[in-house]
Write a structure and sequence with these properties.
This protein is an alpha+beta fold. It contains five helices and nine strands. It has a single domain, classed as 3-Layer(aba) Sandwich (Glutaredoxin). Strands 2-1-5-4-3-7-8 form a seven-stranded mixed sheet. It has a two-stranded antiparallel ribbon with strand order 6-9. The longest helix is centred in the middle third of the chain and has 16 residues.
């Protein structure tokens, strides 16, 4: 009986999360403020998709830290994915003007990307390789405010990738606001 419960739990987990090395096919989306189409599948290098929300305090606290990471890893594309059903262009513009992210932001108001990648929190980071295989899925750090963190999950994964090493911690817990479906 214990084995059956454990196996059921593992099956549940597999349906709830996108695991490392799973290949994904993502839709083209409109990027703000450029208002141009971005086909994430055509980006043939490492990319970090960061699920964000204008109203999430954790997102707001993490944007400056993510900006630092984008500067520290210039050969990696950072893309913000705003996955909130009621998102308007004004919401995206507000993030751009208030927080000055150093990365493009995609409006995922229909939650297509969040659903494909099974993202459940903001902020949550998913690193994809040039073939769109998931290398990392999880939190930015182990605290809602990166200034208080003692584990830098995303930074460590990016450093390993930059040094042509396999990511050792492929999945970590994301802290922050729930993506409401």
């Amino acid at each position: 009986m214990k084995k059956l419960v454990f196996l059921s739990f593992l099956l549940f987990l597999q349906t709830q999360f996108t695991f490392a090395s799973e290949k994904v096919n993502l839709p083209s989306l409109i990027v703000s403020p450029e208002n141009k189409e971005l086909n994430i599948n055509e980006i043939r290098k490492i990319k970090v998709l960061i699920f964000i929300s204008k109203t999430c305090p954790c997102t707001q606290q993490n944007i400056p830290y993510i900006n630092e990471l984008a500067k520290d890893f210039p050969n990696i594309d950072f893309i913000g994915i705003h996955s909130v059903k009621t998102t308007t262009q004004k919401d995206i513009d507000d993030i751009l003007s208030q927080h000055h992210p150093k990365f493009s932001i995609v409006n995922d108001k229909d939650l297509k990307i969040a659903n494909i990648l099974k993202a459940n929190r903001t902020p949550q980071a998913i690193i994809l390789n040039d073939k769109n295989e998931v290398l990392y899925n999880g939190g930015i750090t182990n605290r809602t405010n990166p200034k208080n963190a003692d584990k830098l999950y995303l930074k460590n994964a990016l450093a390993e990738i930059a040094n042509n090493k396999e990511v050792t911690e492929k999945e970590t817990r994301s802290l922050g606001c729930v993506i409401i479906r």
